[in-house]
């Protein structure tokens, strides 16, 4: 261990397939090497930064230009956006996509279950979160199951005395061979907000979506499975979900990539974000004591699979 590095220890027992180590920037990271698949997860944000099924290629994309420092978002992987999505409506100075991706999450439980490794993380409200634009009491539990599929389940419990509203997203960056040779299926006919053009009610046609310029769309009433036909990667990535009424599709394209300090100029070619979420008109309204769970299950199918 070089000087300046911290020793990191887990408060729970870890099975042999999981190692707690220092990741980039000295941030604590779990390295998971299960029989079904491998992954990396930073405790800051409970942020999955890598996943690949055993014998397969990496599925999750991570920028080579990302920051890794306390309180700065990691670029790529799967940021958890909570309790708001995008800019905060009440406080424009509040961090984009909420505070959950900037906080250290606690490891609650790590188990091997057959060929899978199941990891559970928790984030509670704190003085810091209560001082934010969303001052409520909550418990967030995030379960990540690493195997031949990757399953992510975010459960929010309202611990406040009254009802609360929140937005959430599993802002997944997928790795593709070339985004220009990629087709996204499963959104046909859905209404979306075009956040690049600032237009609120656009209808997706029946054709698969091809990203051909800067794309930032919030598809409303989008509860079904979305697939990414990664032609150059010779595979189809399938994103199933439950408890999510909306889907965001994002690719920054050329100019925005150049403008972002933590994103390589040409990296837009290699990625596409498909984000199961509840945002905008599909925000979640939760009574005191109630729980809401959003789950996504990601797997890889052979090229040519059109079944969703
Ligand atoms: C997407 C949003 O989900 O995330 C975009 O729809 C945003 O508007 C993008 O630019 C990246 O957000 P950030 O805060 O990680 O740069």
Bound ligands: 6-O-phosphono-beta-D-glucopyranose
The averaged pLDDT comes out at 96
Q: Helices and strands, in N-to-C order?
A: EEEEEEEHEEEEEEEEEEEEHEEE
Number of helices: 2
CATH architectural designation: Distorted Sandwich
Sheet with most strands? 8 strands, antiparallel
Report the CATH topology name. Beta-galactosidase, Chain A, domain 5
Structural class: mainly beta
Percent range for helical residues? under 10%
CATH class, anyone? Mainly Beta
Radius of gyration: 19 Å
| Quantity of strands, as a count | 22
Give the low-confidence spans. Answer: 1-5
Form type? globular
Description:
With 308 residues, the chain is mainly β. The protein has a single domain, classed as Beta-galactosidase, Chain A, domain 5, CATH 2.70.98. It has 2 helices and 22 strands. Strands 5, 11, 12, 14, 15, 16, 19 and 20 form an 8-stranded antiparallel beta sheet that branches. The protein has an 8-stranded antiparallel beta sheet with strand order 6-7-8-9-22-18-17-13, with no helix packed on it. A hairpin with a 4-residue loop joins β14 and β15. It is globular and about 50 Å long. The N terminus is likely disordered. 6-O-phosphono-beta-D-glucopyranose binds next to β19.
């Amino acid at each position: 261990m070089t000087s300046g590095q911290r020793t990191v220890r887990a408060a729970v027992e870890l099975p042999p397939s999981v190692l707690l180590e220092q990741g980039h920037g000295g941030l604590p990271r779990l390295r998971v090497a299960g029989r079904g698949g491998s992954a990396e997860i930073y405790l800051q944000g409970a942020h999955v930064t890598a996943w690949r099924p055993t014998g397969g290629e990496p599925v999750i994309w991570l920028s080579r230009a990302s920051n890794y420092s306390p309180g700065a978002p990691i670029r790529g992987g799967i940021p958890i956006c909570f309790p708001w999505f995008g800019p905060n409506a009440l406080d424009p100075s509040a961090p984009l996509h909420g505070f959950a991706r900037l906080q250290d999450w606690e490891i609650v439980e790590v188990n091997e279950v057959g060929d899978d490794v199941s990891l559970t993380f928790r984030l509670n409200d704190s003085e810091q979160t209560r001082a934010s634009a969303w001052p409520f009491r909550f418990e967030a539990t995030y379960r990540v199951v690493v195997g031949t599929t990757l399953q992510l389940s975010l459960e929010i419990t309202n611990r406040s005395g009254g009802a609360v509203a929140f937005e959430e997203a599993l802002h997944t960056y997928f790795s593709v061979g070339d985004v220009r040779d990629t087709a996204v299926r499963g959104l046909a006919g859905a209404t979306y907000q075009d956040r690049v053009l600032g237009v609120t009610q656009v209808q997706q046609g029946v054709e698969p979506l091809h990203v051909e310029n800067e794309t930032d769309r919030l598809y409303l009433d989008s509860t079904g499975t979305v697939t990414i036909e990664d032609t150059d990667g010779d595979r189809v990535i399938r994103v199933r979900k439950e408890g999510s009424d909306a889907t965001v599709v994002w690719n920054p394209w050329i100019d925005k990539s150049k403008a972002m300090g933590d994103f390589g100029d040409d990296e837009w070619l290699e990625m596409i974000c498909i984000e199961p979420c509840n945002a905008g008109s599909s925000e979640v309204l939760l009574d005191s004591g109630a729980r809401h769970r959003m789950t996504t299950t990601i797997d890889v199918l052979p090229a040519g699979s059109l079944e969703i």
